[in-house]
């Protein structure tokens, strides 16, 4: 990978997704885009990674390396299969229940916010018997249940949860131990910390938050869950067909998978999930401290219960919407972009995924203190 970073113009990008990617990865991709394999200097294959057949040797090698890296980073046991699918995490909202529960079978869902809501709607749409074991409507999705109190119901095919609500900024800190396998939407905190995969029957994550560009979704499925899938799906929606095809049932999103492979290599080089977790704690700690202390305290507020605050998406408010608009504009002028909260909730949000340098979080924390002082 090229290490020349000095002359490149980069800002701190706090966008929720697509979001910032490691500079080294972007620079390697820049070279490979035109001449695959030329990043280290010299000649490559004379064609770009986007131009090659997905069945060609180099692309198959890229594909397999990305799958192997993911297995290595997660220390994934052999009874889990890894797939790179199209359609984003959103497609999984429907593919999962239609594979496991379309014939009116019972499934348990936790309703923790905007993303859970979409998953629930699609499970209902395909005809599953959806039971809510937790519903955060009353607290406006600002907290989560104690995992020890969450249990699946009799006969449930799975219990679904959203490990990190990207819009609301709430994050599960531990998993429930329930009888049914857990199915988790990990889109916005996948690979941000080590975790035990054994409670999970299925994990899915759209790449564009922590591990690459939009357009590919990682699906990890346990063999016993795979066997329970009904086979009445159209070809593409049948997990078993993807597994049989080595995650190359059809033309996969080659470029996205190539990028995911580079990000995974980068993550391994940094120190894997232990490093990611340490950095996530540091970055989010800087921002939550600034929220608590800036301007003598109380200038910023975070609506989320302190026990479940996200290490990936830090949401906060200022004393007025006018000040929020001013804050977002002035931050952008200083090279800190993407701080506007989701349009459904307003306020501010700093998304600080794996590729956000610690300096970015520090710069934002400093700016928050300065802004509070000047505009208090
Ligand atoms: C972004 C996001 C999604 C949607 O991902 P797409 O790839 O756009 O379908 C789903 N769930 C969560 C938690 C997300 O953050």
UniProtKB/TrEMBL annotation:
Domain of life where this protein originates: Bacteria
Positions that bind L-glutamate: 55
Pfam families for this protein: Aminotran_5 (PF00266)
Assigned keywords, A-Z: Amino-acid biosynthesis, Aminotransferase, Cytoplasm, Pyridoxal phosphate, Pyridoxine biosynthesis, Serine biosynthesis, Transferase
Domain Aminotransferase class V: 11-364
EC top class, as a word: transferase
Secretion signal, residue range per the UniProt entry: none
SUPFAM superfamilies from the UniProt entry: PLP-dependent transferases
Positions with a binding annotation for pyridoxal 5'-phosphate: 89-90, 115, 166, 185, 208, 250-251
Cofactor annotation comment: Binds 1 pyridoxal phosphate per subunit.
Principal location class: cytoplasm
Compartment(s): Cytoplasm
Pathway where this protein functions: Cofactor biosynthesis; pyridoxine 5'-phosphate biosynthesis; pyridoxine 5'-phosphate from D-erythrose 4-phosphate: step 3/5; Amino-acid biosynthesis; L-serine biosynthesis; L-serine from 3-phospho-D-glycerate: step 2/3
Membrane-crossing segments per the record: none
Biological process according to GO: L-serine biosynthetic process; pyridoxine biosynthetic process
E.C. numbers: 2.6.1.52
GO CC aspect terms: cytoplasm
Catalytic activity reported: 4-(phosphooxy)-L-threonine + 2-oxoglutarate = (R)-3-hydroxy-2-oxo-4-phosphooxybutanoate + L-glutamate; O-phospho-L-serine + 2-oxoglutarate = 3-phosphooxypyruvate + L-glutamate
Cofactor(s), names only, from the UniProt record: pyridoxal 5'-phosphate
Residues modified as N6-(pyridoxal phosphate)lysine: 209
PANTHER family reported in the protein's UniProt record: PHOSPHOSERINE AMINOTRANSFERASE
Record-stated family: Belongs to the class-V pyridoxal-phosphate-dependent aminotransferase family. SerC subfamily.
Described purpose of this protein according to its UniProt entry: Catalyzes the reversible conversion of 3-phosphohydroxypyruvate to phosphoserine and of 3-hydroxy-2-oxo-4-phosphonooxybutanoate to phosphohydroxythreonine.
Subunit structure: Homodimer.
Identification of the protein by name: Phosphoserine aminotransferase
Origin species: Algisphaera agarilytica
The encoding gene: serC
